[in-house]
């Protein structure tokens, strides 16, 4: 390779890495696997080392000289008290042994103690606890500064907001201040549930649990974050006062557990490189049985004093470029297999989405036999040029869902022709459609037997109408026989006639039987008295899950009030306003104004939207329970009841005499000294956490908001107050400190 060719190739690889960095860190939508990305970045580093003059001649810094940056618009920036460093990665056992050899040489001993930890594939997070109370959650960002996502992290069910004090003096005391690092992730089961909803809504499925967790963490709607059931695991130590709280990894993990925090499973304390390798192999063998994604193992020196002596690479440079010499990540190469694609079949879901499925020659993959794999959608088949008869590479996406990731073109036979996606529903032959903005192709016929079977199976579920015995083959037989043409026909079924239902074929009949039929009819009768949230689920409104249905029911009380809601349209509008404000902000980094005229127009529009946002926030604040309903849910619920499906559902329920009511109602706002007052909190208060201050405001009848407007009554500011303080001063909003806040409260 001559210098000109090298310069061209380095420029191409830099552009590719920068492109994938943007997709991975900012958009959480990577196009390639971590393994492929690491190989690409390593190739670039080797090229730059081999041709340093050509690399230096190119404009701009190389992606190999900087770390990823996950900071996004719409979040306050917070500086980490102690930088979040990056780990060196390897897929090679020889490099792992070299890591140990360097440390053994440094310390003059070969029996070094290590902590071997599973590397959870999630989104990095740093939590700050002050005097045992959670005050802030910040993303990794660029290592020095991250996004404040405290409101979203507080929705995570397994994260305590207060540290549990020690039971006796032999245990680690709760420090005055501590930064605790960890990972936010999704279990496979939750990932599959959300992707199923995506597919049924005609939206592109998420690539893997890590991307979904990272994307969820950056949502501006905490109600949606809560509904996605994120989890957290904690393992790392940042800044701490007192500094020498513990002296080893084992002691640190013991302290985390003692304080009641979720810690790593399967962590091993070992000695020497052979035990390290054995622990990693054991973890690799076990990870297929874990309920969440792991992509490797992290190896750390056990002793904190030795860690300090080993130090960091990049010391003396920017903190964001630091990497510890005392730790490394050994990443597992993804397990893949090659097999022949026998056929592509099309499944029709309950919302009409046509989902292509790869029918494969059975192949062993990650300990299981794989004969089917997802192809996601029509566009994915075309993008990868997947053809029936091809030899394809299959990988378990997120270690659980088999997916076709590519084609072996060298083995393609001449008879393999481009796949033509069906233009009609394979079940009812209705012409298929693709709605603007969706990747899914749908059958638009609501009477399609496949859709009806799916809807019956769904409503029969235990968490919906709990019609035990009705799902699966019974639902399919009811549709095939014509006994049920819509869900509400279930309430006209007779036990005697239902008992004669043929679950088999004409050649091999198998009747349901009177006993089973009686149980089903009794369950249907019980469903009449189920509360409103269960019936909202039964109506199968897009994005409405169990917790959300309960919140909608609590706000409205009856189905009629949900259908005629004044609350839901305003919640939907609030999200539209927030999105537009972010998009047209005169200070936007991603979409800056073109000139001063554009800046002035944006400023005027931004102020107009801010006034509307304040009015909508005020409405939401005085409406009990409204803050728990997400904007997209509100939008889809309004659309359902204003459409034909919703109107027909209301009419049929009225005919059947079914009038569900809420099991509970949201309580009215408290009256007190802050009634009608809106507070915005910013910065760190001397004694109160944000959670405590918010509780005190609400207990006195007030409310809090995330944004400052002319409608804001007070901005309660502490140390390191950010842009909200500046905006309050611009608008003339009263700014108070904690002492003044307590005086107003009478505390």
How would you describe the overall organization of this protein?
- The structure is a single chain.
- The protein is α+β, with helices and mostly antiparallel strands.
- It has six domains: 3-65, Helix Hairpins (Orthogonal Bundle); 77-331, D-amino Acid Aminotransferase, Chain A, domain 1; 337-411, Beta Barrel (OB fold (Dihydrolipoamide Acetyltransferase, E2P)), CATH 2.40.50; 449-527, DNA polymerase, domain 1; 532-656; 678-745, Rossmann fold.
- 39% of the residues lie in helices and 18% in strands.
- It contains 26 helices and 22 strands.
- The strands form six sheets. A five-stranded mixed sheet has the order 2-13-10-3-9.
- A hairpin with a 2-residue loop joins β15 (354-365) and β16 (368-374).
- The longest helix is centred in the last third of the chain and has 26 residues, at 596-621.
- The chain is globular.
Layout: helices, strands, pairs:
Elements: H1 3-26, H2 34-50, H3 52-57, E1 77-79, E2 89-90, H4 93-107, E3 113-120, E4 123-130, E5 133-139, E6 145-147, H5 150-153, E7 177-185, H6 188-200, H7 209-217, H8 222-227, E8 231-241, H9 249-258, E9 268-271, H10 273-286, E10 294-301, H11 304-310, E11 312-313, E12 323-324, E13 327-331, E14 336-348, E15 354-365, E16 368-374, H12 378-384, E17 391-397, E18 401-407, H13 449-459, H14 473-481, H15 495-498, H16 514-527, H17 532-538, H18 546-556, H19 559-563, H20 567-584, H21 596-621, H22 631-642, H23 644-656, E19 678-682, H24 690-699, E20 703-704, E21 714-717, H25 723-731, E22 734-736, H26 738-745
Parallel strand pairs: 2-13, 19-20, 19-21, 21-22
Antiparallel strand pairs: 1-6, 3-9, 3-10, 4-5, 4-7, 7-8, 10-13, 11-12, 14-15, 14-17, 15-16, 17-18
Helix pairs in contact: 1-2, 13-14, 17-18, 20-21, 20-22, 22-23
């Amino acid at each position: 390779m001559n210098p000109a060719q090298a310069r061209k190739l380095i420029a191409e690889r830099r552009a590719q890495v920068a492109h994938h960095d943007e997709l991975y860190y900012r958009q959480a939508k990577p196009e390639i696997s971590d393994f492929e990305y690491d190989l690409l970045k390593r190739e670039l580093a080797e090229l730059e080392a081999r041709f340093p003059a050509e690399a230096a001649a190119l404009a701009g810094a190389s992606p190999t000289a900087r770390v990823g940056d996950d900071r996004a618009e719409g979040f306050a920036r917070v500086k980490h008290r102690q930088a979040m460093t990056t780990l060196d990665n390897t897929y090679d056992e020889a490099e792992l042994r070299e890591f140990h050899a360097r440390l053994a040489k440094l310390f003059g001993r070969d029996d070094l103690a290590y902590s071997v930890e599973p590397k959870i594939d999630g989104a990095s997070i740093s939590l700050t606890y002050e005097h045992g109370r959670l005050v802030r959650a910040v993303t990794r960002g660029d290592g020095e500064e991250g996004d404040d996502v405290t409101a979203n992290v507080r929705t995570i069910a397994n994260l305590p907001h207060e540290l549990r004090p020690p039971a006796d003096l032999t245990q680690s005391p709760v420090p005055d201040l501590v930064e605790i690092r960890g990972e936010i992730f999704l279990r496979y089961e939750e990932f599959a549930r959300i992707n199923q909803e995506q597919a049924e809504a005609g939206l592109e499925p998420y690539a893997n649990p890590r991307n979904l967790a990272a994307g969820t963490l950056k949502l501006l709607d905490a109600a949606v974050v809560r509904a996605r059931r994120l989890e957290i695991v904690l393992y790392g130590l940042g800044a701490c006062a007192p500094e020498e709280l513990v002296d080893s990894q084992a002691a640190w993990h013991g302290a985390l557990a003692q304080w009641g925090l979720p810690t790593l499973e399967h962590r091993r304390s070992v000695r020497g490189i052979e035990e390290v390798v054995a622990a990693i192999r054991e973890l690799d063998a076990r990870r297929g049985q874990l309920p969440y994604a792991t992509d490797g193992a992290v190896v750390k020196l056990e002793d904190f004093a030795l860690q300090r002596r080993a130090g960091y690479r990049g010391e003396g440079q920017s903190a964001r470029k630091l990497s510890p010499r005392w730790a490394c990540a050994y990443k597992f190469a993804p397990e893949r297999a090659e097999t022949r694609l026998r056929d592509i079949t099309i499944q029709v879901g309950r919302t009409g989405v046509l989902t292509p499925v790869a029918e494969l020659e059975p192949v062993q993959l990650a300990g299981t036999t794989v004969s089917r794999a997802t192809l996601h959608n029509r566009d994915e088949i075309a993008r990868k040029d997947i053809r029936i008869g091809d030899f394809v590479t299959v990988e378990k996406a997120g270690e659980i869902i088999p997916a076709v990731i590519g084609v072996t073109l060298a083995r393609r036979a001449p008879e393999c022709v481009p796949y033509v996606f069906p233009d009609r529903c394979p079940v009812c032959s209705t012409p298929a459609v693709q709605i603007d903005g969706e990747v899914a192709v749908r059958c638009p016929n609501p009477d399609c037997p496949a859709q009806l079977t799916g809807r019956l199976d769904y409503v029969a579920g235990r968490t919906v109408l709990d019609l035990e015995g009705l799902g699966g083959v019974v639902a399919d037989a009811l549709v095939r026989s014509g006994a049920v043409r819509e869900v509400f026909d279930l309430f006209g079924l007779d036990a005697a006639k239902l008992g004669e239902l043929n679950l088999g074929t004409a050649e091999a009949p198998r009747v349901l039987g009177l006993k089973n039929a009686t149980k089903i009819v009794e369950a249907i009768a019980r469903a009449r008295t189920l509360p409103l949230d269960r019936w909202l689920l039964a109506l199968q409104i897009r994005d409405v899950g169990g917790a959300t249905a309960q919140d909608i029911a609590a706000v409205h009380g009856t189905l009629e009030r949900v259908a005629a809601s004044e609350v839901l349209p305003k919640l939907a509008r609030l999200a539209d306003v927030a999105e537009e404000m972010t998009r047209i902000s005169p200070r936007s980094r991603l979409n800056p104004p073109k000139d001063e005229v554009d800046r002035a127009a944006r400023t005027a529009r931004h102020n107009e939207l801010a006034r509307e946002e304040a009015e909508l926030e005020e409405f939401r604040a005085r409406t009990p329970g409204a803050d728990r309903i997400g904007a997209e849910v509100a939008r889809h619920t309004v659309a359902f009841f204003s459409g034909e499906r919703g109107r027909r559902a209301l009419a049929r329920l009225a005919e059947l005499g079914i009038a569900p009511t809420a099991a509970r109602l949201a309580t009215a706002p408290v009256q007190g000294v802050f009634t009608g007052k809106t507070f915005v909190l910013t910065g760190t208060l001397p004694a109160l956490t944000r959670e405590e201050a918010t509780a005190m405001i609400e207990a006195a009848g007030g409310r809090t908001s995330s944004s400052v407007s002319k409608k804001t009554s007070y901005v309660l500011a502490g140390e390191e107050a950010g842009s909200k303080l500046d905006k309050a001063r611009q608008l003339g909003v009263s700014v108070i400190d904690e002492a003044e806040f307590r005086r107003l409260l009478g505390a």
